[in-house]
Amino acid sequence: MRRGEVLPEGTHLRIGSIWLWCVCFGVASAADPPAGAQSAREALERLRLGNQAYVAAQFDPARNGAARRAELAGGQHPFATVLSCADSRVPPETIFNQGLGDLFVVRVAGAVAGQTVLGSIEYAAEHLHVPLVVVMGHSSCGAVKAAMETPPPAKPDPAGVNLERILSAIRPSLPRALSYGDQWANAVYASVEQNIGDVIRLSPVLAEMGEAGKVILVGAFYDLNSGKVHFSEPVVFRRRSEQVSGGRSSAPVSEAHR
Ligand SMILES: [Zn+2]
């Protein structure tokens, strides 16, 4: 498989409530240690604990106080990047119980990975050395619903060109959604998978950092009712020498925390 071929049929697996990913990539070198892997795991654990605190209504106001603001005036060192939908009900800082300077947040309807979004994530990874990228969808996502219900325009419509750019980024994922159960939620899961695939496919910078273990990508789904965030396993980058034929990976994947 050539680099840049992301999430082909058969490499993303979801079975019932189990949300699995396995993405294959070639890499130039097998010698680079995953320098950011440990810090990424710690960052992910911090998000998990923060979400648990949010669900339990245990907030930390000090993270947004004057002292923290003064502490950050000279520079930022966020520990995770979150690409999230712009929906007013899913602010990452709140649902992960984080404060000023903790998260590098990029928000756009549907959490689609356009060029300016990718540039922002690349900046965080390359220049702020943020080791974890979370791509998060949510239940009852209006952008995904609109993509489900609105066919592509028969001819270009100047009045709708900007919104259509978002919908056209979501639509290709819809056929991959599970056909049973909650169709809307299934479509959101499929869109998150696609958004992650787009991040890797359209950003050589992030693909290379992922292959080198300097950045870890994780999918997430936020439940509006419970307040809980369910994470996927980290995207698996496999070295070229370990890949098997047919594009299907045999790398171990484990159950997501749903
Ligand atoms: Zn949304």
Write the layout of secondary structure elements.
Elements: E1 12-15, E2 18-21, E3 23-24, H1 37-55, H2 66-72, E4 80-84, H3 92-95, E5 103-107, H4 115-127, E6 132-138, H5 142-149, H6 161-170, H7 183-202, H8 204-211, E7 216-222, E8 229-231, E9 237-238
Parallel strand pairs: 3-9, 4-5, 4-6, 6-7
Antiparallel strand pairs: 1-2, 7-8
Helix pairs in contact: 5-6, 7-8
Bound molecules: zinc ion.
Strand order of the largest sheet: 5-4-6-7-8
Radius of gyration: 18 Å
Secondary-structure element string: EEEHHEHEHEHHHHEEE
Shape: globular
Give the N-to-C terminal Cα separation. Answer: 30 Å
Count of helical regions: 8
The total domain count is: 1
Helix percent reads 25-40%
**Ligand kinds:** zinc ion
CATH fold-type name: Beta-carbonic Anhydrase, Chain A
Strand content: 15-25%
Written description of the protein model:
The structure is a single chain. By secondary structure, the chain is α/β, with parallel strands linked by helices. It has a single domain, classed as Carbonic anhydrase (Beta-carbonic Anhydrase, Chain A, 3-Layer(aba) Sandwich). The chain contains 8 helices and 9 strands. It has helices at residues 37-55, 66-72, 92-95, 115-127, 142-149, 161-170, 183-202, 204-211, and strands at 12-15, 18-21, 23-24, 80-84, 103-107, 132-138, 216-222, 229-231, 237-238. Helix 5 crosses helix 6 (161-170) and helix 7 (183-202) packs across helix 8. The longest helix is centred in the last third of the chain and has 20 residues, at 183-202. It is globular. It binds zinc ion (ZN). Zinc ion binds at residues 85, 87, 110, 138, 141-143.
